[in-house]
Design a protein that fits this description.
The chain has one helix and seven strands. The chain is mostly beta strands. A seven-stranded antiparallel beta sheet has the order 1-2-3-4-5-6-7, covered by helices on one side. A hairpin with a 4-residue loop joins strand 2 and strand 3.
């Protein structure tokens, strides 16, 4: 779903790095109109345990948002959502997911009450080159 940080960006990536019980989060994307890369750095904390898939994330302390791992295959995709259904992401290790996997994730999100018609599909044409 469209998010303030991602507006007008292409080739958006999210990088997660464990750090002493927390997770460093770096969201990065290319601003096509400004012709430059933009980056937001935040941190996530596990709400219960590091194996629960339920975190709280902040990019602007002291404001936190829920970050719930809804589904993952641990190697190809992860479906992330918020607790109030106002935001969700489908993360992939590749610029595109195969249609069967995408259909499965969209059906699951819709079943859980997310507005899948509100999803945006970010241009990832440079992502395969690591840019």
């Amino acid at each position: 779903m469209d998010h303030d940080f991602e507006k007008g960006l292409s080739n958006v990536t999210a990088t997660y790095s464990p750090q002493k019980g927390e997770v460093k989060v770096v969201n990065r994307g290319y601003n096509d109109s400004k012709k430059k890369w933009e980056e937001a750095v935040g941190e996530a904390e596990f709400v219960k345990s590091s194996s629960s898939g339920f975190l709280k994330v902040t990019f602007f302390w002291p404001f936190y948002g829920a970050y719930v791992v809804i589904d993952t295959d641990y190697s190809t995709y992860t479906l992330i959502g918020g607790d109030d259904k106002s935001y969700m992401w489908i993360l992939s290790r590749q610029p595109e997911l195969d249609s069967d996997t995408m259909d499965y994730l969209l059906e699951k999100a819709k079943f859980l009450g997310y507005d899948t018609d509100a999803l945006i599909y970010v241009d990832q044409s440079l992502a395969e080159y690591g840019l």
